Amino acid sequence: MVLMVGRSKSVNGQMATGAAWTVLFMLIDRCMGLISTVILARLLVPEDFGLIALATSVIAILELLGAFGLDTALIQQPDTGRQQFDTVWTFNVLFGLGMGLVVACLAAPAAGFYGDPQLVSVMVMLGVGRAVQGFENVGVIAFRKEMAFDREFKYLLTKRFATTVLVTIPLAFALRSYWALLAGTLAGTCIGVALSYALHPFRPRPSLAALGQLMTFSKWLFVTRLVEFFYSRMADLIVGRWAGTAALGSFTIAREVARVPTRELAASVHRAVFPGYVKLADDRALLRRQYLKVTSILLLLILPAGIGLSLLAEPIVLILLGAKWKETVPLIQILSINGILAVLLSTVHYVNLAVGMSRAT
Question: Which of 302, 233, 316 is nearest to 267 (CA)?
Answer without folding.
Answer: 302
